[in-house]
Specification:
Strand content: under 5%
Helix content: over 70%
Radius of gyration: 27 Å
Largest sheet: none
Order of helices and strands: HHHHH
Oligomer: single chain
Length: about 120
């Protein structure tokens, strides 16, 4: 059944009023674009939240390094501290340029492998 045909027993003005009240006049492409924009905003928020989590977890790891058994006289290994500071610095840079970084990573999926390789190298 087509929604473009007038409803039986109604004038074209009443039909237009019913269509506008029901939202049928809105273009489907317009609603699709709104959903895509909403999904992009949600994904960007998740991305920024993940960056924040990485920063907080790196700070926590650096704070607890002196308590590890591998710490000599309460001093953590220098290489571990340097790696943690590098991760923390990169996280702050990524958070500062978060929107641009998110757009680049969403356009070029092969670049999403870079953080995975960095994390694998740090383990």
């Amino acid at each position: 059944m087509s929604t473009d045909l007038p409803l039986p027993g109604r004038s074209s003005a009443e039909h237009a009023l019913v269509r506008s009240a029901s939202g049928l006049d809105a273009a489907p492409n317009h609603r699709g674009a709104e959903l895509v924009a909403l999904a992009e905003r949600f994904n960007h928020g998740i991305f920024m939240g993940a960056l924040g989590f990485i920063g907080v977890s790196t700070l926590t790891a650096l704070a607890f390094l002196p308590l590890r058994a591998s710490a000599v006289h309460g001093r953590p290994p220098t290489l571990t501290v340097a790696a943690g500071l590098v991760v923390l610095g990169l996280t702050m840079l990524a958070t500062w340029r978060g929107r641009d970084l998110y757009q680049v990573l969403s356009r070029r999926p092969e670049l999403q492998l870079v953080p995975v390789l960095i994390a694998a190298a740090l383990t």
